[in-house]
Specification:
Blueprint (H helix, E strand, L loop, with lengths): L1 H23 L8 H4 L7 H29 L5 H23 L4
Helix pairs in contact: 1-3, 3-4
Length: 104
């Protein structure tokens, strides 16, 4: 079980790092090309900001779930994962529709 918790912290940290790169460094190329093909140059900054923050939210949820499961050993810790992951996914979908004019 400890391996899963460590894995979740590592994956969560990776999500946070990639989200930070997308948000702060505006590395839109870390997102698959067809997701940003229709994003205009003036919308690049708000698009990368929202996508990066959503990715960071997902990463925080993954990492916190691993840490909380290590400390408390309860299945309720997975609520953190569900809330953060679904929240990040909703932000991504809304951003896709707004800036890319569709999900794909």
């Amino acid at each position: 079980m400890i391996v899963v918790q460590i894995f979740m912290v590592i994956i969560g940290s990776l999500f946070i790092y990639i989200g930070w790169r997308i948000w702060k460094k505006e590395q839109i190329t870390l997102i698959h090309r067809y997701h940003y093909e229709k994003v205009s140059a003036e919308n690049k900054k708000p698009y990368t900001e929202k996508m990066g923050k959503a990715m960071i939210l997902m990463g925080i949820g993954i990492a916190l779930t691993g840490i909380a499961d290590f400390i408390f050993h309860t299945s309720y810790c997975w609520c953190i994962f569900a809330i953060c992951f679904i929240g990040g996914l909703v932000i991504m979908i809304v951003s896709q529709i707004k800036y890319n004019h569709g999900i794909f």
